[in-house]
């Protein structure tokens, strides 16, 4: 990275010690980033001194001059500056206007680390001046004596004639920062569902060890949602006001600690286990509102569906990972090992999150200018939220369509999430290991089809189809697909067909990520955290009542009755969604 620095002083010996150079006239372009490097200044007699400096570069066009009290020579430096880096540049010094002719065309190549520099003469002339701030630090140069340069005419200045920088960077530094944020949210949701579904596998040996019946198992499964319910709206308000980075980081640390404490609480007694599971729900409850807040600031509208689909597919792959590894860990090390191993992963994620994530693009000092223009040009307003317009939000029919549809959707989803291993074990007669491994297939199907649905939705929007139409199409698939395949479960006769129906049900359900789960940012982007908190509160209530009700239904009835209730709610959700939802912004 070439650093064009403007160095000004009456005496260059005092310059090396002062650490301050300043032009009085202001720059014409905006400040961007701090750059650092080694400026090597040489006068026409060949004397040389060096200075390590850290300069604030003004925009992609860096204007510098060579100046004296009587005469001015003017040059322009065109520098493509993309990242913080260090390097060395060479400048020619002159206080005489006549010496401008000494700048003959030449090309010099420098290789510093992985950066290739090419310095050439500029033919452009500008009379603009800048202010350069730098840190003064001596630098040893073995090939020349470092000394002070005197100017009889007063102020002497050094100018880098031109620097066209085409650096070669590692691929991970060229990767778009907004997708780094998406991948970090994806990994957080991966851990979220790993820590959540491990109980659905561990509950089988735990219920045998502690002599729990179906009603007690249902109570334990639903206790997670007690805490999960409490922090949905609070998490949304918190994220919209102070930023999603802090809120999501808090959530991951909180639920990871609760996961590690679960085996200890279970051995102490049932009440302690219920409280620990509720505490775990508190941490996971803030995750979705915080994530929605972050992505509403980082992701342009044209990439909204696919980014959300990728993040939510982290939940599905978390279920895949948890259901696949839990039986193995239980078999080898006992059921407590699942909670200890999964919970400890949160600390690794948190360390990366602190160093890489920012709540908005404006807070990221390393964000490239072209990506910032893309984000801010294609996404929503970024003004901070100071007050939540509750009356306005709750007066809108599309908001209530979101709330009701989310309830109907989550009833069926949470039943499958928490009770599927038990269904495989009791109805299909699979053992513990088979139950865990076969549960992977439906969630893997969801991960794949969520991303397919996201790309389809963004493509339809880019082709000119209205956002409202796209959201209705995708959510109708997310409702009617699971309803159809759940009705087929009562007619299948083989375990393989039952697993296939489950997989198809979950795969079509994943299209909801491009339907109702993307709609919060459509109708109220500034309040997307609060809107998701509201609708997901209804979804959590469906999880609490649905999970507990399933245990009660199984004591009095059958699995067919469980699936019939879910199908009815899917149909109700389809009607409400298509009648009242919209993809237009209704809350600003």
Automatic annotation (TrEMBL):
The chain crosses the membrane at residues 179-203, 223-240, 247-266, 272-295, 307-329, 335-354, 399-420, 440-461, 530-554, 561-580. This is Major facilitator superfamily (MFS) profile domain-containing protein. Keywords: Chloroplast, Membrane, Plastid, Transit peptide, Transmembrane, Transmembrane helix. SUPFAM superfamilies: MFS general substrate transporter. Residues 181-585 form the Major facilitator superfamily (MFS) profile domain. Belongs to the major facilitator superfamily. Sodium/anion cotransporter (TC 2.A.1.14) family. It holds the Pfam family MFS_1. It is found in: Membrane; Plastid, Chloroplast. Its main location: membrane. GO terms for molecular function: phosphate transmembrane transporter activity. The keyword Translocase does not apply. GO terms for cellular component: chloroplast; plastid membrane. PANTHER family: ASCORBATE TRANSPORTER, CHLOROPLASTIC (PTHR11662:SF255), SOLUTE CARRIER FAMILY 17 (PTHR11662). It is a multi-pass membrane protein. InterPro entries: MFS, MFS_dom, MFS_Na/Anion_cotransporter, MFS_trans_sf, SLC17A9-like.
């Amino acid at each position: 990275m070439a650093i064009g620095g403007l160095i000004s002083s009456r005496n260059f010996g005092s310059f090396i010690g002062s650490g301050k150079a300043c032009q009085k006239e202001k720059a014409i372009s905006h400040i961007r980033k701090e750059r650092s490097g080694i400026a090597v200044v040489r006068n026409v007699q060949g004397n040389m001194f060096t200075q390590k400096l850290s300069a604030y570069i003004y925009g992609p066009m860096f204007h510098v001059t060579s100046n004296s009290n009587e005469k001015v020579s003017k040059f322009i430096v065109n520098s493509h500056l993309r990242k913080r880096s260090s390097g060395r540049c060479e400048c020619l010094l002159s206080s005489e206007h006549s010496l401008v002719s000494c700048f003959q065309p030449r090309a010099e190549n420098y290789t510093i680390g992985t950066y290739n520099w090419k310095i050439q003469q500029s033919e452009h002339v500008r009379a603009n001046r800048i202010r350069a701030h730098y840190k003064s630090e001596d630098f040893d140069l073995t090939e020349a004596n470092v000394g002070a340069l005197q100017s009889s005419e007063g102020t002497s200045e050094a100018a880098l004639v031109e620097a066209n920088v085409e650096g070669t960077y590692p691929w991970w530094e060229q990767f778009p920062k907004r997708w780094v944020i998406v991948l970090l949210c994806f990994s957080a949701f991966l851990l979220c569902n790993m820590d959540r579904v491990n109980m659905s596998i561990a509950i089988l040996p735990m219920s045998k060890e502690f002599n729990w019946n179906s009603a007690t198992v249902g109570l334990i499964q639903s206790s997670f949602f007690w805490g999960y319910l409490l922090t949905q709206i609070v998490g949304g308000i918190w994220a919209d006001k102070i930023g999603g980075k802090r809120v999501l980081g808090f959530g991951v640390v909180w639920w990871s600690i609760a996961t590690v404490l679960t085996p200890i609480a279970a051995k102490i007694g049932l009440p302690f286990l219920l409280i620990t599971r509720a505490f775990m729900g508190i941490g996971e409850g803030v995750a979705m509102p915080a994530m929605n807040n972050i992505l509403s600031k980082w992701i342009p509208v044209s990439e909204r569906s696919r980014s959300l689909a990728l993040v939510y597919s982290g939940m599905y792959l978390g279920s895949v990972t948890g259901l696949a590894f839990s039986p193995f860990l239980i078999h080898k090390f006992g059921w407590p090992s699942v909670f200890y191993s999964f919970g400890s992963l949160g600390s690794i994620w948190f360390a990366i999150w602190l160093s890489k994530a920012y709540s908005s693009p404006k807070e990221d000092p390393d964000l490239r200018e072209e990506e910032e223009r893309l984000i801010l040009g294609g996404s929503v307003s970024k003004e901070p939220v100071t007050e939540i317009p509750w009356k306005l939000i709750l007066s809108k029919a599309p908001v209530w369509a979101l709330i009701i549809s989310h309830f109907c959707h989550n009833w069926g989803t949470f039943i499958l999430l928490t009770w599927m291993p038990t269904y495989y074990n009791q109805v299909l007669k699979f053992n513990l290991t088979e139950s865990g491994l076969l549960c992977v297939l439906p969630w893997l199907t969801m991960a794949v089809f969520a991303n397919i649905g996201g790309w389809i939705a963004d493509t339809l929007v880019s082709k000119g189809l209205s956002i409202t139409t796209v959201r209705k199409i995708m959510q109708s698939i997310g409702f009617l697909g699971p309803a159809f395949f759940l009705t087929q479960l009562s007619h299948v006769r083989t375990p393989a067909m039952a697993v296939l129906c489950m997989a198809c049900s979950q795969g079509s359900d994943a299209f909801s990520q491009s339907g109702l789960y993307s709609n919060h940012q459509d109708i109220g982007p500034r309040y997307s955290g609060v809107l998701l908190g509201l609708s997901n509160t209804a979804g959590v209530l469906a999880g609490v009542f649905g999970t507990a009700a399933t245990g009660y239904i199984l004591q009095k009835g059958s699995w067919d009755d469980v699936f019939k209730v879910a199908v009815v709610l899917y149909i109700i959700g389809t009607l409400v969604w298509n009648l009242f939802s919209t993809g237009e912004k209704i809350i600003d």
